[in-house]
Amino acid sequence: MDQKYILSLLVENEPGVLSRISGLFSGRGYNIESLNVAVTTDPQISRITMVTRGTPTIVEQIKKQLNKLINVIKVYDLTGDDYVERELAMIKVRAEDQHRAEILRMVDIFRCKVVDVSAESYTIEVTGTADKLEAILKLLKPMGIKEIARTGSLALLRESK
Q: What is the DSSP secondary-structure string of 80-143?
């Protein structure tokens, strides 16, 4: 049975690295559910956070192949470890007169921010777990979601206490 895996990779910050990594997944017929890449505190190194699904055997093979790529410095499988995970979404929702107050109450309850307002819509910024994002999307759907942009998961291991 397929399980969700969160992989965090430290890679050299060079052109083509992401292409080789994504090619490794597509070449084996596996999907990357979410993908984030950004430079770390060292401008020569980027962190890639990816979410995929697969069997433990397949994901273990993928991790071994990732470790063989020249530009990959380290592969961390956060699955099963104690980590902090967050996702960001911007949601543009219809803001008809009869729903404006209700939308603003939801923004308050979910500790979101309204980052843009127009005559017909609010753009809401929400940060949290994927479950939190799914919950607010479910509540906003009846009002009419016009657009969504999501980052996908970002994750870091927790420090030992």
A: TS-EEEEEEEEEEEE--GGGHHHHHHHHHHTT-EEEEE-SSEEEEEEEE-HHHHHHHHHHHGGG
DSSP class of residue 42 equals: S
Which residue carries 């090619």 as its tokens? 23
* 49 CB-near residues (< 8 Å, 6+ apart): 6, 7, 8, 9, 34, 35, 36, 37, 152, 153, 154, 155
pLDDT for 91-133, tens place per residue? 999 999 999 999 999 999 999 999 999 999 999 999 999 899 9
CB-based contact 9:66 (threshold 8 Å):
yes
Mean pLDDT of 29-34: 89
Average pLDDT over residues 33-50: 95
Q: Is 57 helix (H, G, I), strand (E, B) or coil?
A: helix
